[in-house]
Write a sequence for this structure.
């Protein structure tokens, strides 16, 4: 086993000892998978959805009884791209399991016979699927699901950033997917999404194909007390310490976003000598360095939004707390916004871009690190 030199892991597999909390969510997911139900997992980005799923996949029963597959479709823009990604993952995860599964895969995907080859050096079959090879994505998807349906173990397919399906130009993409999924008996799906408004529309609107088709859970931030205890314990186990107030300062500034917390704690752990303590001023300096590191990313992000959208973003940010009445006369006058219709149009786009987030009718900046960056530019 690899020696752990820093317990605050931000990439790769996280061993049980260094996985913070999520016991309730883990048991919830495992229980519904065991009862052969689909799962809907929603949270803002960087809250740890992917790591939670990976953590669940390490469960002994999952390892023994299931084949686990995961695809991230955030960067897909068409239904054909979705089919391409799924086909590659099914090949790598199921077909390569055995000669029997490889034969099943090659004999079932008849629409993609041109994609199969042979590597004489490795003495193994190859599969190279290009977008141009998929002339009938609906039919190819059926073939891929036929392979999954006949796999030698029950399968769990995780589709990350599932809300992308609703953005495909093929308006029937949701219906096509649902029509295939509802007939599968050997598969559990875990639908993960970071745009909660869109995911809720997909799964809770009676007019949408996936209406009430999965058990849902919203992944909230780990509690401040739990993360504080976790961080202090990790430092202590390596003969270091961190001031409780320092953990609180990081948690509050970064809104409890798991990835950001882990990044700052990782840096704090690295620069704290054995036998010494990390204090509040040190973590504040580390957060300042991190904000500066992200400067180019945030500049590029704002370069793609309009002037009207920027005006609304700055207005929401300057309020400092979630804003309920973004079209109220008082709010618009205070921030010199042009009209209610332009504000509504800007808000819609900023929600789509995941720059703003909305909860219970109130708007706020979606990324707490972006909010900190905006503060440095005031």
């Amino acid at each position: 086993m690899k020696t752990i030199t820093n317990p605050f892991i931000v990439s790769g597999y996280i061993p049980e000892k260094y996985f913070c909390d999520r016991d309730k969510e883990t048991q919830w997911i495992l229980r519904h998978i065991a009862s052969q139900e689909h799962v809907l997992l929603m949270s803002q980005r960087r809250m740890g959805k992917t790591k939670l799923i990976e953590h669940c996949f390490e469960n002994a029963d999952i390892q023994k009884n299931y084949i686990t597959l995961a695809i991230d479709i955030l960067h897909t823009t068409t239904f054909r791209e979705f089919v391409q990604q799924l086909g590659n993952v099914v090949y790598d995860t199921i077909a390569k399991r055995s000669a029997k599964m490889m034969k099943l895969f090659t004999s079932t995907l008849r629409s993609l016979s041109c994609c199969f080859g042979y590597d004489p050096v490795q003495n193994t079959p190859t599969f190279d699927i290009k977008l141009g090879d998929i002339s009938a994505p609906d039919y190819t998807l059926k073939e891929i699901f036929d392979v999954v349906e006949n796999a030698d173990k029950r399968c769990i397919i995780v589709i990350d950033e599932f809300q992308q399906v609703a953005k495909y130009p093929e308006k029937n993409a949701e219906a096509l997917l649902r029509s295939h999924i509802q007939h599968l008996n050997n598969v559990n799906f875990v639908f993960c999404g970071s745009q909660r408004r869109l995911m809720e529309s997909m799964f809770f609107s009676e007019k949408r194909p996936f209406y009430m088709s999965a058990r849902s859970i919203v992944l909230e931030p780990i509690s401040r007390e739990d993360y504080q205890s976790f961080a202090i314990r990790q430092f202590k186990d390596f003969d270091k310490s961190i001031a409780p107030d320092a953990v609180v300062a990081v948690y509050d500034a970064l809104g409890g976003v798991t990835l950001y917390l882990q990044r700052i704690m990782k840096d704090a752990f690295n620069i704290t000598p054995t036998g010494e303590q990390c204090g509040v001023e040190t973590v504040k300096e580390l957060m300042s360095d991190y904000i500066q590191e992200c400067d180019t990313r945030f500049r590029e992000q704002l370069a793609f939004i309009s002037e009207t959208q920027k005006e609304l973003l700055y207005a929401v940010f300057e309020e400092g707390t979630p804003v309920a009445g973004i079209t109220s006369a008082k709010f618009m006058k205070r921030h010199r916004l042009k009209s209610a219709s332009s504000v509504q149009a800007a808000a819609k786009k900023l929600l789509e871009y995941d720059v703003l987030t909305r909860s219970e009718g109130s708007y706020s900046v979606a990324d707490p690190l972006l909010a900190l960056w905006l503060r440095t530019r005031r």
Q: What stands out?
A: The mean pLDDT is 92. DSSP finds 17 helices and eleven strands in the chain. The CA atoms of residues 261 and 315 lie 26 Å apart. The longest strand covers residues 66-72.
